[in-house]
Design goal:
Blueprint: H1 8-28, H2 48-68, H3 75-100, H4 109-127, H5 136-142, H6 144-160, H7 179-210
Helix pairs in contact: 1-2, 1-4, 2-3, 2-4, 3-4, 3-5, 3-7, 4-7, 5-7, 6-7
Length: 211
């Protein structure tokens, strides 16, 4: 009798869904933290981190469904999702970490959303089989989520004003140094998002060629 192989891709997608659910439950029951980039309950949905992780969880669920239906890998949605969560992973580790302290940013729901889910998403993406070729156009599409979020963030500030902490509409503090610096940071993050997508594509191509 032929022994069935364990499908790593399926297991990792299930793990992403479960971890996202756990993180969401913890988030809903969390309280705002001045240094942890958190709000109360569902108010956390304003954060790019939370939205990107929730999106990654939904795409992972869709991947599980198409897996059992024998459909092709959702390469573009997966690239969009893994780019978004990798971006938030890198921004937290490299930008907010030095500002607020890394340990403070990996507590409660953010332990899942800032660290665990992004890492599992990266592993799943790199180990996925039969993904097909990814192009620069796909990388541009992958960075659009950051563009849309950034525009919504800025429009909200332009309409409602910056506000005063803890009711500030600039919850990431990008405008602490003024609008020009804030816009520069936004532009940098959008370019970083595109760069992350290109880097993920590059690594995936190297892994594909080596396998």
């Amino acid at each position: 009798m032929k022994e069935k192989k364990i499908d790593l891709n399926l297991i990792l997608n299930m793990a992403i869904v479960i971890l996202t659910i756990v993180g969401t439950v913890v988030m809903i029951n969390s309280k705002a933290s001045a240094t942890g980039l958190t709000a109360n309950g569902f108010q956390n949905l304003k954060f790019y981190t939370v939205l990107s992780n929730e999106f990654a969880g939904v795409i992972a669920l869709c991947q599980i469904i198409v897996h059992f239906r024998g459909k092709p890998y959702l390469k573009v949605p997966k690239l969009v999702a893994v780019t978004a969560v990798t971006l938030t992973f890198l921004v937290v580790a490299g930008f907010f970490g030095p500002l607020y302290g890394w340990l403070k940013l990996y507590k409660q729901a953010n332990f899942y959303f800032h660290l665990v889910v992004p890492l599992v998403c990266m592993v799943e993406f790199f180990t996925a089989k039969n993904i097909g070729d990814l192009t620069i156009k796909h990388c541009m599409i992958a960075s659009l989520s950051t563009v849309v979020y950034g525009l919504a963030y800025l429009v909200n500030i332009l309409i409602n004003g910056v506000g005063v902490w803890p009711e500030s509409n600039d919850w990431y503090g990008f405008l602490n140094w003024g609008m020009p610096v804030g816009l520069t940071i936004f532009a940098g993050i959008i370019l970083t998002s595109f760069g992350v997508a290109c880097l993920l594509r590059f690594i995936k191509k190297k892994i594909k060629r080596a396998s």
